[in-house]
Write a structure and sequence with these properties.
The protein is α/β, with parallel strands linked by helices. Helices cover about 45% and strands about 20% of the residues. The longest helix is centred in the N-terminal third of the chain and has 35 residues, at about 120-155. The structure holds ligand C2E and magnesium ion (2 copies).
Length: about 725
């Protein structure tokens, strides 16, 4: 590289002639002067070096054999001097001195001439040497300018030899790729090894498709070099093909460091698309993404809800605690909203990409949330309920404990509008109603959704606190052996006395409890209450009573929790044989093997197992054979149409017979009429449960039954 080299501007090229022979010096000097060159002469090696350093000649004519420092030594030292390293040196030798010539080339001579030197030849030699020096200097200058430009542009060039699979890069390219020396060949895989793993498949594909001739290479990717921060680079490449145009021989290209540019773009994007305070997307970005999600929802036939959230008491906080505290509140609220949404599985990932958060801050204390992939619009109410609940948890700001509340307006695409603007406007209308309705609540734009969804939201959010508020209790529905007229026990049925809604049916709240992870604590409550109650009844003398407890199918997916619940009777001194576990067929469907294992464990502990609602669902006879059961509860739907229907009588008869053959006790559910009881007895069923014998009743009422047991046990039976 010639950077920093100074070259003198002269009217005539200057030739240094170093020869101890005066005659030679004069002859050569004369010839060269005549050809238009300026001459300096040295009569020995030392002088030659001095003159070379002071005059910096354009060509040095150097006799190899001189007294003192000979020509070899002079040449060696000249090459060691960076200022003279490129000066052409013509060495003069005797005729038969090929060894000497070889050695001279090794130490840096440019050309040689044999003595005696022919005058015209010398002048030509010098002229050619001068010319090639100029060409070399121009080439080096141009290379140097190119390298400077590449360094400034952080741009390098590389070439990939397709056949050998090797790449070679310029200084800048080698630097970017972490290839120590430029000019060294590396395997293409070494280059790939520098590419960020996330970008690698894309890069390989782009290279392959450029080789196939589909398109030129034009890609950006990140490079990761050991011990360095990742850098972004842009690669351009062009394929060079063989003569027939098919075979790809080489790919030449450039690589440019665009890290700073990418960072600047990111910064600009973040300023343009994100809210500075909360880091949440702003309206611009959000609107764009939601529009995309809406068109996806249209194609999939799913629904998307927009939830417009407005804090209820934010102005008060700002006024009383100051704007600094207000900012902290907004930040914390943003985080809570994001956390709730992150956990929600109906937030569709694809239109928003993984990193996109479907919560936006619109400004002030207003946030907008999108929930995609909904089957029904009212599902959004569940999210709204969670959002409100999460805001209610106390927030500590500057040592103040704050309780936040918000109003939420919900509107659903496509039900409430066909585009973003309309859906947003309607969410705003709904928000207005929510504020009007007393705040700290959510309202749907559409009235029909409002009722159903609000009811569900209310149930879901209040169910979590139902246990601690003692709103749950058990009713007991008696089961009788109608042939012996004997009270056998009861089914424990959960009741929820809701402070606003009144009595809520388990058919309504059990599925919701399953969804929000409340089924285990509820079942624990049922098991504990039932065991405590049974102990009291046993103390009244009813030692043979069996209490049936319903187990949700969902508990079978959490066998550890299930077994924990089933450890309660033993811990309370209740014999497991007094407890019948009612399971439905759905519990056996998911993972039959696991269900079989758990059931076997429970039976081994002494529990009785009943298959509930048989006939309402799948009614697979194979379940009766595969799982060892004690009781088969024939569903109410069979019993309802029993009287007068030969077909139903035949089916129920066959079921009862099959159960008996398998050693399973058939129990008929939902007996409301005496005629139903009569038919069932004639078919061989003697254990029954239904309004005819007693509705699910309070503890007090059932205690009365227990005390009367046997005298006569059931008014219907006595009749
Ligand atoms: P199930 O286990 O089949 O309970 C029997 C249901 O039938 C009870 O409804 C009972 O009141 C009703 N029933 C009983 N006899 C008659 C009758 O003669 N006629 C009519 N029309 N209905 C009758 P309930 O108490 O509303 O419970 C409904 C369902 O809720 C139960 O069906 C059970 O699947 C579930 N459930 C109740 N308590 C619990 C519980 O503690 N845990 C679980 N996992 N589920 C429960
Ligand atoms: Mg049941
Ligand atoms: Mg049942």
């Amino acid at each position: 590289m010639l950077t920093g080299r100074t070259s003198r501007v002269r009217s005539q090229p200057l030739i240094l002639i170093a020869d101890d022979d005066l005659v030679m010096r004069c002859t050569m000097g004369g010839v060269l002067r005549e050809s238009g060159y300026a001459i300096v002469e040295a009569e020995n090696g030392l002088q030659a070096l001095e003159l070379a350093e002071t005059h910096r000649p354009d060509v040095i004519v150097l006799d190899l054999i001189m007294p003192g420092i000979d020509g070899f030594e002079v040449c060696t030292r000249i090459r060691q001097n960076p200022e003279l390293a490129d000066t052409p040196v013509l060495v003069l030798t005797g005729l038969e001195e090929s060894q000497a010539i070889l050695h001279a080339f090794e130490i840096g001579a440019t050309d040689f001439a044999t003595k005696p030197v022919s005058a015209p030849l010398l002048s030509h030699r010098v002229r050619f040497m001068l010319r090639s020096t100029v060409a070399l200097r121009d080439l080096r200058d141009s290379e140097s300018r190119l390298a400077d430009a590449q360094r400034l542009a952080q741009l390098g060039n590389w070439e990939w030899d397709v056949n050998s699979g090797t790449v070679v890069g310029s200084v800048e390219a080698s630097g970017l790729l972490g290839f120590g020396d430029s000019g060294q060949r590396h395997h293409i895989e070494d280059m790939y090894a520098r590419v960020d793993l996330c970008d690698l498949p894309m890069i390989r594909e782009a290279m392959a498709s450029a080789i196939q001739g589909d398109c030129a290479l034009d890609v950006s990717c990140r490079l990761v070099l050991p011990g360095q921060q990742s850098r972004s680079v842009h690669l351009l490449g062009r394929v060079i093909r063989g003569q027939n145009g098919d075979e790809a021989l080489r790919m030449t290209g450039t690589i440019q460091d665009i890290t700073e540019r990418t960072r600047a773009e990111d910064r600009i994007r973040s300023l343009a698309y994100y809210d500075g305070l909360t880091g949440l997307p702003n309206r611009l970005l959000f609107t764009d993404k939601v529009r995309m999600a809406m068109s996806l929802a249209s194609r999939r036939g799913s629904k998307l809800a927009l939830l417009l959230v407005d804090l209820d008491n934010f102005k008060g906080i700002n006024d009383s605690l100051g704007h600094n505290a207000g900012d902290k509140v907004l930040k914390a609220v943003g985080e809570r909203l994001r956390d709730v949404i992150r956990d929600h599985d109906t937030v569709v990932r694809d239109p928003f990409r993984d990193e996109f958060c479907p919560v936006a801050r619109l400004g002030g204390d207003e946030f907008l949330i999108a929930i995609a992939n909904l089957k029904s619009g009212e599902d959004a109410a569940v999210v709204a309920g969670r959002l409100l609940a999460s805001l209610r948890a106390p927030l500590i700001v500057d040592e103040n404990e704050l309780f936040m509340a918000a109003s939420i307006g919900i509107s659903v695409f496509p039900d409430d509008g066909s585009d973003f603007e309309e859906i947003f406007k309607n969410a705003d209308v709904a928000l207005y109603h929510a504020k009007d309705a007393g705040r700290n609540t959510a309202e749907f734009f559409s009235a029909s959704l409002n009722e159903a969804a609000m009811y569900r939201m209310l149930i879901e959010t209040s169910m979590r606190r139902s246990l601690e508020r003692n709103e749950m209790s058990l009713h007991y529905q008696p089961q009788y052996d109608v042939v012996e007229n004997r009270l056998l026990g009861a089914e424990a049925l959960l009741r929820w006395q809701h402070p606003d809604l009144g009595s809520v049916s388990p058919a309504q709240f059990i599925p919701l409890a399953e969804r929000i992870g409340m089924i285990a604590p509820l079942t624990e409550f049922v098991m504990t209450s039932a065991c405590r109650q049974l102990r009291e009844w046993q103390q009244l003398g009813a030692h043979d009573l069996t209490i049936a407890v319903n187990l949700s199918a969902q508990l079978f997916r959490q066998p550890d929790l299930l077994l924990q619940v089933c450890a309660i009777p033993a811990s309370m001194g209740i014999d497991a044989s007094s407890i019948e576990l009612e399971i439905t067929e759905t519990a056996l469907l998911d993972d039959a093997q696991e269900a079989e294992r758990v059931l076997a464990l429970l039976r081994a502990r002494g529990f009785r197992i009943a298959l509930d609602d048989f006939g309402a669902g799948f009614s697979s006879l194979s379940h009766l054979r595969r799982f060892t059961l004690d009781t088969l509860k024939i569903d109410r739907s069979f019993i309802r149409d029993l009287v007068g229907s030969t077909r139903e009588i035949e089916i129920v008869g066959a079921l009862i017979a099959l159960a008996r053959r398998l050693g399973v006790e058939p129990v008929a559910e939902g007996i409301e009429e005496i005629s139903q009881q009569a038919v069932l007895v004639s078919l061989g069923c003697r254990v029954m449960q239904g309004y005819l014998f007693g509705r699910p009743m309070s503890v007090a009422d059932f205690t009365t039954l227990v005390q009367q047991a046997g005298n006569p046990a059931c008014p219907a039976l006595a009749a």
